[in-house]
Fold:
Amino acid sequence: MPNAETGSRPAHSRRGMKLWLGFLLVIAAGLLLAWWGTQSVRGRVVQVDTVQAGTGPTVQPTDGVVIEYEGRLENGTVFDSSAGRGPAMLLASQTIPGFAQALSRMSKGGRYKVWIPSRLAYGATPPQGGPVPPNANLEFDVRVLEVVPNAAALMQGAGAAGGQQPQQ
Structure:
């Protein structure tokens, strides 16, 4: 509303507008920083999104797991899958570092979406002749069918065929 003496808006109205403008700039800066932070963290850490929660304790490094999975490159190309071959049986500690980290957040019966940065996957030197290119980030869909506690010790104790330790 114009001031009758000066023909302009009152000073308190301009201050209010500047205050609102400053407030909006702070919110915009906060949103930008939050988005940037999410992007920079994603490049450094394993992300595990729970599609369906499992039950029981989470997988430990010495545990064995029976899983169904599909591994993809970021462009959607499937590079490995248990489909058609049956579930995979493996020791949590004998996987790429990022997959071992992801397994440590999973439980029996759960379904998960996993994102692994290159440095925790195969990095600059993936298996020669394999489908994963150097410095590729990996994505997995994983379903945990079974967790075998302390499977590493069970396998080590089994030794040679028939449970006999090999002769030295």
